[in-house]
Specification:
By secondary structure, the protein is of the alpha+beta class. It is built from six helices and ten strands. The strands form two sheets. A five-stranded antiparallel beta sheet has the order 2-1-7-6-8, covered by helices on one side. The radius of gyration is 19 Å and the shape is flat.
Length: 208
């Protein structure tokens, strides 16, 4: 599924608006008793090996709906790919991206107002972005933006494996970290064992 246009979710006008779903779809979603979620996909997803084979024939959006219905926010542990997924559920938005952050999105947040989008240009058309000398210096030092910072004030980029939930306010957490593969089995190790475990960790991360 390849997105054809830039998307956004914003409350900058004092109410929640988005071009992720059409008004018709949102209205249909709220009135329907059978359908309680809507899915927007930027990128592509594949089921993991632990997903039941009956789901393998579903479309990407049908796969996401089926897994989200069963596992809620944990559904993301049953898929892989390069993606940003937006789920509208009971008047809340949930946004997930992949563990490598290949498909990014950006969050501008200031004084309770926010714009979330896959396009900095789109955000800049709706609010005046302020250049940050400190963040620009860090960018020059590392030759890329570290963590979630950008070269603008109040503008962040998504981290790998991010789960953003928008209800009354925005909360963001990471649903997976590489070190989980190592520290879940933490024990007293020799230096050689530590080196061997980190070697395995890198291999497992690449295969994940």
């Amino acid at each position: 599924s390849v997105i054809q246009k830039n998307w956004y979710i914003s409350n900058a006008k004092g109410y929640l608006e988005t071009n992720v779903f059409s008004k018709g779809k949102i209205k249909e979603l709220e009135e329907s008793k059978k359908e309680n979620i809507a899915v927007f996909l930027d990128g592509y997803v594949l089921p993991r090996l632990n997903v039941h084979t009956s789901l393998n024939k579903k479309s990407q959006k049908e796969l996401i709906k089926a897994l989200y219905t069963k596992y809620k926010s944990e559904f993301v542990n049953y898929i892989k790919g390069s993606f940003v997924i937006v789920i509208f559920s009971q008047k809340n938005f949930h946004i997930f991206n992949d563990i490598h952050n290949v498909v990014k999105y950006f969050i501008y947040e200031k004084n309770g107002s926010f714009i979330i989008s896959n396009s900095v240009r789109l955000i800049s058309k709706n609010t005046k972005l302020e250049f940050s000398k400190e963040k620009a210096a860090l960018f020059c030092l590392f030759n890329h933006c570290v963590s979630d910072f950008t070269i603008f004030k109040y503008l962040k980029q998504s981290k790998p494996a991010s789960y953003l939930r928008l209800a009354d306010y925005i909360t963001i957490k990471q649903y997976w970290l590489p070190e989980h593969l190592f520290f879940n089995k933490l024990k007293k190790l020799t230096i050689d064992e530590v080196a061997l475990n980190w070697d395995k960790l890198i291999g497992q991360y690449i295969e994940y």
